[in-house]
Write a structure and sequence with these properties.
heterodimer, A: alpha+beta, three-stranded antiparallel sheet, globular, B: alpha+beta, five-stranded mixed sheet, 5 strands, 48% helix, 11% strand
Chain lengths: 366, 352
């Protein structure tokens, strides 16, 4: 008999495959994981506390910094909550601009995930491809609002900047190119035998577990649950467009990969339709009172961010600042299932499973 | 609002909170001149790194001149000498004839404040302006000052809110605001019955039958949230009610969307948003608890997703969840003192 003993391994908080500052305390028996404890909070900035002394417009830039890979959807959820409380109508053109940037953002976010995930499991070149294409989206955003990551683009009642001359055509060109690129990506990676060996059947769970753990986004849909807030509880103007909700059935890392790549295709479909119907002119800001003071009361709104259900719960006491604001962050909720998935897996699969959940630490820690 | 202040005062732990609150409300007005002097002296002596920060802060909040920010009142005074004296007077004319009860104390607060205030806050001002390294005593004094300032801020806000409401000739709105502050939101029913009303009635009936006669404390529809049915459940029945809400075929809330904790100053509240994925129904369920010993039964056994969410609430608000398998801090370091999202939170080191 070989004498064995338990090994305690510390992963992170500074580790490339954790995509931020996540620390995992892993106990190993040989190569098999027996216990995992995620340690989070390294990026906690107290966004909710800070927000209690800021007015609503001032909070928008803080939402950029939660999920910094998908700042547009964060902007939207806050504005949407306030608009809902105050009953503010958002003009047509602003609605379209919001929808277009949110779908571009979804593509950009999934591209980041796609590139880094494959990098995690050992393929370097997809990362370079993905970041090239994402760069085009960032440049489009840069032209629109002057920032590449933290946009601060939306406002209560509309958007800050109208699309500059020729911008819509550039987006159209991008959508056209991206469709071809997506097929290229599938040719490059999706059938690769080594890749499939790393992801098929790894980190699988069923729909019941996913619902118990409150998972959302691709993490939920990979189990076959057809639940997408853009369809099930439409917001913005999503109910006007035709698109499908891709679902998996095995709930493993491959299905999560499949769902996310297909979502890029569906986003392109939405974009094509939205760009066709984009109103040639119109206001970009609705009628908003000078002081934004939602009446005393509370509201919970939720939208589909690239990572799942991002929610915003506001308790207002009729002041310019929220009395309490709580963000339901999908990364935070989704990460909970990690210890359950990892126990019994071999150490090599840790990075595969962690990457498959697709977390952003800025959002986990808030 | 005034009730709220009183409770706050009582809660903040200082026996004479009521008396001290008005005292501390004042420093801004009468003190602006001396504070400026001491501040400029400090500037001349050596570049004070506190100064720019203070200016920035107050520049952001010029409208709130009457609300002293925690801890550093003195450096804040200089930029607002003109506004500060006006502020106390503003709420009075509109308010006094209409609401005799509420504004009276607020008015007194700000008028009677100047004289007593000069004593306690003067040393604090000089200490802040002249000496860089603070001794422990001074830190303690600052913390006390911060507590007093916070109480005063709340008092001032109460006054200001009443003033604004009266100015807008919306007495009813103020009353509604008061009601909302006292007893959660949405005590008034929408004028015409909403399609969600039968759902709400049925939910109350079922919970009364299956859980306990007094399980439901309050049942309303949230007018801001598409008339979302909102139930307040008594803490002692919450675990059983949660199981019923998940398992009963008429509810079927298998998905827990969100858990939020709120410090309402009169009480604490944990807010759950539940989803039935088949029918698409979303209900809001709240459980109230007291502030001194906040505790709500854990529902991790019902919805596994509540685990980290309850830990987060414990971490940031200090609500304890009996039955939770692993209730520790999650976002803040383990040795952190206090719970930041509580409204009476005072940072251990106010300079951070």
């Amino acid at each position: 008999m070989i004498r064995t003993e338990e090994l305690l391994l510390n992963v992170g908080p500074q580790h490339p495959s954790t995509h931020g500052v996540l620390r995992l305390i892993v106990k190993l028996d040989g190569e098999i994981i027996t216990h995992v404890e995620p340690v989070i909070g390294y990026l906690h900035r107290g966004t909710e506390k800070l927000a209690e002394s800021l007015n609503y417009t001032q909070i928008i830039p803080y939402t950029d910094r939660m999920d910094y890979v998908s700042a547009m959807t964060n902007n939207y959820v806050l504005c949407y909550a306030v608009e809902k409380m105050m009953g503010i109508e958002v003009p047509e053109r602003a609605q379209f601009l919001r929808l277009i940037v949110m779908e571009l953002q979804r593509i950009a976010s999934h591209l980041v995930w796609w590139g880094t995930y494959l990098l995690d499991i050992g393929a370097l070149s997809p990362f370079l491809f993905a970041f090239n294409d994402r760069e085009r989206i960032l440049q489009l955003f840069n032209e629109l609002c002057g920032a590449r990551l933290t946009y601060n683009y939306m406002r209560v009642g509309g958007v800050k900047w109208d699309a500059p001359e020729g911008w819509i055509d550039k987006v159209k060109a991008f959508v056209k190119d991206m469709k071809g690129r997506l097929d290229e990506y599938h040719n490059l990676v999706s059938g690769n035998e080594i890749f499939l060996a790393r992801v098929k059947g790894i980190g699988a769970y069923d729909a019941e577990t996913a619902i118990q753990y409150g998972l959302s986004g691709a993490n939920l849909r990979c189990t076959g649950v057809k639940w997408d807030l853009r369809k099930n509880e439409p917001y913005c103007i999503y109910d006007r467009f035709d698109f499908d909700i891709p679902v998996g059935k095995n709930g493993d890392c491959y299905d999560r990969y499949y769902v996310r790549t297909e979502e890029i295709r569906q986003s392109l479909r939405i974009l094509e339709q939205a760009l066709e119907q984009f109103p040639p002119e119109g206001e970009t800001m609705g009628k908003v009172p000078r002081a934004i003071r939602p009446p005393a009361g509370e509201v919970y709104v939720r939208i589909e961010s690239p990572r799942g259900e991002i929610g915003c719960y506001i308790v207002s006491k009729g002041k310019a600042e929220p009395y309490r604001i709580k963000f339901r962050r999908p990364s935070f909720v989704n990460l909970q299932i990690l210890p359950k998935l990892l126990v019994g897996e071999s150490m090599t699969n840790l990075v595969t499973i962690l990457g498959g959940i697709d977390i952003v630490l800025g959002e986990v820690d808030c | 609002m005034s009730e709220e202040q009183k409770q706050n005062g009582a809660r903040s732990g200082e026996g004479e909170a009521q008396a001290e609150a008005p005292a501390a409300a004042a420093p801004q007005a009468p003190e602006s001149a001396p504070a400026t002097e001491s501040a400029s002296r400090a500037d001349g002596a050596k570049p004070a790194d506190e100064q720019p920060k203070a200016v920035q802060e107050s520049a952001e909040t010029p409208r709130q001149a009457a609300q002293p920010q925690a801890a550093d009142e003195s450096p804040q005074a200089p930029p607002q000498p003109a506004e500060a004296p006006q502020q106390p007077a503003a709420p009075q004319p509109g308010v006094e004839p209409k609401h005799t009860a509420t504004p009276q104390p607020a008015g007194e607060t700000q008028q009677s404040a100047p004289q007593p205030a000069a004593g306690p806050s003067q040393p604090a001002a000089t200490a802040a302006g002249e000496k860089r390294p603070l001794t422990d005593e001074e830190k303690e004094a600052r913390r006390q000052a911060a507590l007093a300032a916070r109480a005063a801020k709340l008092a001032a806000q109460g006054g200001a809110a009443a003033g604004a409401a009266a100015g807008a000739a919306a007495g009813a709105r103020a009353a509604a605001g008061g009601a909302a502050a006292a007893g959660g939101e949405g005590t008034q029913e929408p004028p015409k019955p909403s399609p969600n009303q039968p759902k709400l009635d049925r939910a109350v009936q079922l919970l009364k039958e299956l859980v306990a006669e007094d399980a439901v404390e309050e049942a309303t529809l949230n007018p801001f949230n598409d008339d979302m049915p909102t139930l307040v459940i008594r803490g002692e029945h919450w675990l059983k009610a949660a199981q019923t809400l998940r398992d009963h075929p008429e509810f079927g809330f298998r998905y827990l969307r969100n858990v939020a904790g709120v410090d309402h100053e009169t009480h604490m509240e944990v807010v759950y948003h539940l989803l039935n994925m088949d029918s698409g129904d979303t209900y809001c369920v709240k459980v109230r608890t007291n502030r001194d010993n906040p505790s709500v039964p854990s529902v991790v056994s019902v919805w596994a997703t509540a685990n980290w969410q309850e830990r987060e609430i414990y971490d940031l608000l200090g609500i304890v969840f009996p039955g939770h398998p692993d209730l520790r801090r999650i976002l803040l370091p383990d040795d952190w003192v206090g719970h930041p999202l509580r409204k009476d939170y005072v940072p251990l080191d106010p300079e951070v």
